[in-house]
Every structure is written in C-alpha cells, then in structure tokens.
Amino acid sequence: VIRSVVRGVGAYLPARTLTNADLALMVDTSDEWIVQRTGIRERHVAADTELTSDLALAAARAALANAGMEPGEIDLIILATSTPDNTFPATAVSVQAGLGITHGAAFDLQAVCSGFVFALATADNFIKSGAYKRVLVIGAETFSRILDWSDRTTCVLFGDGAGALVLEASESEGEQRGVLTTHLRSDGRHKNKLYVDGGVSSTKTVGYLRMEGREVFRHAVGMIADVIDDAFKATGENAGSIDWFVPHQANRRIIDASAVKLGIAPEKVVITVDKHGNTSAASIPLALAAAHEDGRIKTGDLVLIEAMGGGFTWGSALIRW
Ligand code: ACO
C-alpha cells in the first residue's frame, strides 16, 4: 500500500494588512459589525505587483524548506486557485519555472474555496496510483482583485495569501502516517449563489465576486457535517479521536456551528479567519502552517480538514500528520 505522507508545510502572506477600521473608511461598515458577523479583524492584501504565482512560489519554497527537500525532488505541482495570473497558461507552470523544475507536471485546479481539499485528494490519488512520488499541493489566491470594493456585503470578507504542503509517497510496511481518506462533493444547482460575474467565454473580462451570503450560510453547516461524516465512516475515527479540526476559514460562525454540530471540542479547532479573512483555496494550508509552526500540530496527530465553497463544492480529508 502506498501512503501520501506530509513532509512539509509552508505559507506566505502579503505584507500589507487591511483592518476593519481601514475598511470602515472605504464603505459603510464597522469593526463591530464585521467581527460579530464573521470573526474577521484583519486580512492581508497583495501589492499591485504581486501575483498569485508570487504568493504560491513563496509558500512552495517555505514548504520545501520545512520538508528539507530540493525543488528538483518534486515531480508534480497541483495549484488550487480561482484567481490565476492569466487565463492560461496555468499558474502552476509559473511556480514550476520559478522553482527551476523542468521535469514532471504542473497544473491548476479550480474548486473555489474547496480547491485545496480537491487538490489534496487529487495528489493523494496520483501518489497512491504510483504515478508521482513527491507532490507540491498549493492553495494560492488574490481575491482582492475580484472584489467590488464598493460592496460592503462582500469586500469585508476576503483576503489574499498562499499555503502549501509537500506530500511524499511512503511504501514503508506499517506506515501509520499520511492521508487516510478524502471525500469530494459538488452540486451545480447552486452555481448562482456564489460566483464571479464574467469571464473569458461570457464577457471576455473578469467581473466581481457576487454572493447570496445567507443562502451560502444556510447550506454550509449541513454540507460540511455530511462530508465529515463520510470521513469518519470510512476510517472509524470520530469527533473525539481527532486532534485538530482545520476547517476552511470563511466565517467564524460557520466554523463554530460546524464544530458544535459535530461535537468537536472548541480547543481542537484551528482559527485563522480573524487574521486572514477568507483566503478561499489558501485558507486551509495557511491554517495548517500556522498550527504547525506554533507547535500545535505534531507528527502523529490526526488532523481533519474540511471546506465548502462556490459551485457548491465541498469536501473533507483526514490526515495522520
Ligand atoms: N457592514 C455593515 N452592514 C452590513 C455589511 C457590512 N459589511 N454587510 C451587510 N450589511 C447589512 C446588510 O445590508 C443588511 O442590512 P439591512 O438589514 O438594512 O438590509 C444587514 O447588514 C444584514 O445583512 P445579512 O446579509 O442578512 O447579514 P448576515 O447576518 O447574513 O451576515 C454574512 C452576512 C456575514 C455574509 C453571512 O451571511 C455569512 O457569513 N454568509 C456566509 C457567506 C460566506 O462566508 N461566504 C464566504 C464565501 S463562501 C465560503 O467560503 C464557504
């Protein structure tokens, strides 16, 4: 049996931060409203010259350093993003070139906020099939570029950033570590509840993020609970046996409600939404990096990740770290 074992994790956040107070100078909002409804206090925003590929490359380098690996050891790069540098080529090939890798393969994957879980599942299956040995799984976004900065109902929610994991195939007998299970779902009937108005095939130019916030909220907790249930059923694990719950960081209220519904103790929940806002596909690897760096997530820990986002798409994974 081949297992996909986490060898390294890394993150990158743009230097510039935008606080709720800063936003209150731009639109009719307040720190109190944003904190109470979302738990967000500040978010990072990329400089005009900083592209998604720059964020992704910095996170990839950090993950490789953490793994003690050279870029040349990587044979596959999967980059989850909804905010690519260009329509094509894939942002992943810019990261590949930036790392000086000329072998193997690199491609983008698009599942909005669930992108990282979809990318992790894809990487895990490529590793298990024996096709690739060392995979960089990256979530990187510059949502600041698709926000309507005059719309208070959306511009306060998102931030920019990138995070990455290095996965390596392990065929060691009795290997306990690695990705234990992944579960992906989507339901396109909800495609108009969260979308960007415009794109190459419809309007040629990219528009702004649009969202029916209440509708997203209404569906989120049930979908998250369902797909986590799938992960528990597949492995025999449960809310009590996991060490860390690292959810997609969209909104504090969605995270808290999900943890309550699943019976996950609050001290096991990793929260970064207060400092990062919703960084879409980057939020989970950013949160994994934060909890790894401050010593919470340790080798051998059982880590549950979960995301839900535009499409709708949703998914879960259990990782023995
Ligand atoms: N500041 C002040 N007031 C605001 C703001 C703001 N930034 N935004 C909206 N309001 C106002 C509205 O205009 C409305 O005013 P009205 O009553 O006079 O019409 C009032 O606040 C209530 O608005 P609602 O949209 O009903 O507020 P709600 O409590 O639903 O909170 C929110 C909005 C935070 C977007 C919530 O619906 C939510 O969290 N939804 C989930 C969406 C989400 O997290 N999306 C992220 C992307 S999807 C994903 O990653 C899963």
TrEMBL record:
GO biological process terms on file: fatty acid biosynthetic process
Annotated GO CC locations: cytoplasm
InterPro entries (alphabetical): ACP_syn_III_C, ACP_syn_III_N, FabH, Thiolase-like
Keyword Acyltransferase: yes
Species, as recorded: Ancylobacter pratisalsi
The protein's assembly and partners: Homodimer.
UniProt pathway annotation: Lipid metabolism; fatty acid biosynthesis
Residues forming the catalytic site: C113, H248, N278
Domain of life, per lineage: Bacteria
Keywords, comma-separated and alphabetical: Acyltransferase, Cytoplasm, Fatty acid biosynthesis, Fatty acid metabolism, Lipid biosynthesis, Lipid metabolism, Multifunctional enzyme, Transferase
Protein name in UniProt: Beta-ketoacyl-[acyl-carrier-protein] synthase III
Catalytic activity as recorded in UniProt: malonyl-[ACP] + acetyl-CoA + H(+) = 3-oxobutanoyl-[ACP] + CO2 + CoA
Domain Beta-ketoacyl-[acyl-carrier-protein] synthase III C-terminal: 235-321
Primary location recorded for the protein, binned into one broad class: cytoplasm
